[in-house]
Amino acid sequence: MLDFKSLSSNQRLLLNILVPMLYLFPLVFAYLGPKNFGFGFRELVYAGLTVGAVGVLLWMAAMWSLGSSLAVLPGTDKLVTKGLYRIFRHPVYIGIVLTLTGLFVACGSLPCLIYVLVVVIPLNIFRAKAEEKVLLEQLGTAYQQYKDLTFF
What we know:
With about 150 residues, the protein is mainly α. The protein has helices spanning about 10-30, 40-65, 90-105, 110-140, 140-150. The model has no long low-confidence stretch (mean pLDDT about 90).
């Protein structure tokens, strides 16, 4: 597991830029690439847009709840348990996956859906595990109790 404390400030800056770029890449591909809206099913376009909209709202609400604790790399001095964080430990990641999946279903982009499965979901799981390790080290029992009461 990557030890974020041992990274130099330049390495941390690079990660703060590169990680969000991994979410941007499939959006650019979906925009520029061929589209088969809803894979030929109009209902899938609407379903995809609905899932994507729910994902964006979840993502935004989670970021709002985090406030000044929002960061790309893990680490904090306080535990956020308000808003969506009362139920989920990682609502931003859930929102990202829902947003991208919904958009790519609506666009009918199989390569982008595969990208979500192969890159985005594993990246979010890795990030979640890394965050939880750091938060357990920093917040100890308080974080473990919170973890026991919440879903991913």
